[in-house]
Structures are given as C-alpha cells and as structure tokens.
C-alpha cells in the first residue's frame, strides 16, 4: 500500500512541475519559421506589394539587443535606451516596380514568374531588400546598409545593342561578393541586389536569360533627358524646318543612337531616321520632327484621325510634371493605375499628314479631347522627308511658363508602310523601353525636359 501511495505522490509532483515550466518551452501559433518565398497573388487586381505577408526566419531570434549589453548605461535609465527597430529583421514589402524579361504587354504583372519584384529603387539595400541601382543612384558603386555584401546576390545589366536595351551581363551568387569593388553602377544599365532571405528573387537573378531585353518597370535606366532653350525668334508653324529652328535641334535619331530602339524593324534595315527639335516662348511649347523615310502611307482623313497609329505618323505624350517626380513614379503604369491620365498630368496627341497632303491630328487626354494648338504636317516624296511641326499652348496644359522648371515630352515615329500594313506588321521607332508611348506606356520612361530661361 505504501508503494502505491508513493507512486501516486511522485506522479502528482511530476504533473505539478510540468505545469510550472510549460510556458518557458511552449511556442505560440505563429512560431513556424517562414521566409519571403511568396511572390504575390495570381489575382491581377491585387497590387504586388500587398501580397507579401511572410515573416523572416530570424524574427524568432530571442537574443538580446546589442545595446542592452552596454554596461555604461545606468539601470534607472534603461527605459529610454534605444532598441533596434522592430523592422530590422522583417522582409520589406514589395513596391510596384519590377524587372521583367518577358515580352512586354498589357497583361504583364510584377507577380509573373518572369519578374523580379523590387522593394527599393536607388536606395541602399538593407535586410530583406531587392533593390535596383541606376545612373540616378547617389553613389558610383553599390552600397548596402549593413556593409555585408556576402549576404546578397547581384545581377548586372548593361546596354546591349543587339536587343536595343539592357540585358544581363553577370550574376554574382550569394556569398561570392565580399566588397563593392566589382559593383560599379553602369551609366547605361542597372544593378539589382537581392538579400539572401529573398530566396525566390535570388533564384530569379540566375533564371533570367542573358540574350533578352530587360524592362525595369517605373525606372529610367539611362539618361534619356533633354534641356531646351527659349526661342528669340517667332516660330512659324508651316511644315518647314528653317530659320528659328536651327538653334533648337536636341537629338538626331538613327540606329547608332542608343536611346532609340528599332525593335520592330528588320535586322539592319533601319531606314527611318529623324531630327528632333524643341523650344518654347511665353505662349507655347514648339515641337518639330523631320523624318527621313523612303515610304509614306497614311490613308486617313482629318475626321478619323484617331486611327493614324496604324500607319505613318507621330504619337506624342506630355507630362505636366517631371517624369521623375514622386507623382509620376507612383502613377507610372496606366495598365493598373490610370490616375495620371484622368487627372491631366499626362496628355496624349497624334499628328500625321495623310495621302492627300492634309494635316490630321487629335488629342486624347483624360481632361481634354480638343487640340488647342496648331499643327502643320507635310510630305515631300522627292526628298523622302516628312515634317511634323507643332505648337502647344502652355495654357492648354494648365502651366505657367514662368514657373515651369521641368516637364515631360516624348514621341514615337509610327512607320507602318503599305507593304507592312498588308502583311499585318505594325512598325514603329521608339525611345528605349517604349519611351512612355508604346508597349506598357510606362510614363517613368518619358524624358524629363529642363526649361532653360
């Protein structure tokens, strides 16, 4: 009997000890270690940066913060000692910017398996970041916040004339870089740094092909910007490039100009070239494009000018704020966010000369369907020259020329001739990455124009 009582007493003591010590070893419901391998919902209506709800594995680390070990701090002041930020070991949310190697189209998303999602643009990468560095970055070489480069994988992309854009030139795997000596930011290209805990994005740096053009959504990867001077002589809008225009040539466009892409042309048959002029005065912005081409085909009328994009014409976009402004960077993608258009910050125009020699134009902006400027477009078949000459009033853009420092201006040269049209081929000459007109109409790709007094 005594043995039985002793056994019962021992069992009671063991149960009591387990009850007292249980809280020190138990884990809560959220204790499983997870990393940022979720790259977003397949539902296209969900923004990419709202889909990452994962928690990094080392968030469960119960080690003491470093500054608590400083014995010089009096114990009665411990309540005001700064502790490490709560998000230092938390994977940051993805932003709307991403890099893709897929063919461009309106269905393209950051959450596609061909996309590298980003958490930062031209900022020093920290824990959990996937950051892109371009020519606009403040430093010559990549900098990471903790200085531990071995925690990151890096992709370097540089201009590749074979694809009229940037392509992958090198990848450094996690742990292969100890400092930034090999990480000079290209003048024409970019570097992506992906922290090791962003395992999916780290793997995508290697999965990315080497022979395709990479599109960095919402990010200018090279300096395509211009500055313009005020005209001292009146510009006569008559379809001729002469006189006052001579001092205002800002670009010559041909296949050797790396800022322009002939992707829709047959290889080495880049027959369309152009001279590009811009100036202004107190009333207007003046734009002229002189296009040299052996072809001209534009079977439209002034009353149906909206269909000119199928033929030979120019399509123009203006942003009333800088394309580098926070506003455009937050609203660059009309596919998922058309606010910049509906709020009048982006204006769209088309200009053409039809087969009968008539000037045709349209405005298709979110706040205006009426073109309030003047345009004269001419075609000289003997000289193989098409001239587009345009004035656009500052007032129609709700801008005061005395206050404007920068704005955005871009265009495409649509070059579909009759043979192309009959074959179902759409041909155009565009600034890099579509220049804000073609493909994604990414408005961050529009050149920033600096207004010189």
What does this structure look like?
It is a single chain. The chain has helices at about 1-25, 200-205, 325-330, 340, 420-425, and strands at about 100, 115, 120, 130-135, 150-160, 165-170, 190-195, 215, 225-230, 250-255, 260, 275-280, 285-290, 310-320, 345-355, 360-365, 375-380, 385-395, 405-415, 430, 450. With about 450 residues, the chain is mainly beta. The strands form four sheets. Strands 9, 11, 14, 15, 16, 19, 20 and 21 form an eight-stranded mixed β-sheet that branches. A five-stranded mixed β-sheet has the order 3-4-7-5-6, covered by helices on one side. It has a five-stranded antiparallel β-sheet with strand order 10-12-13-18-17, with no helix packed on it. A hairpin with a 5-residue loop joins strand 15 and strand 16 (about 360-365). The chain starts with a helix and ends with a strand.
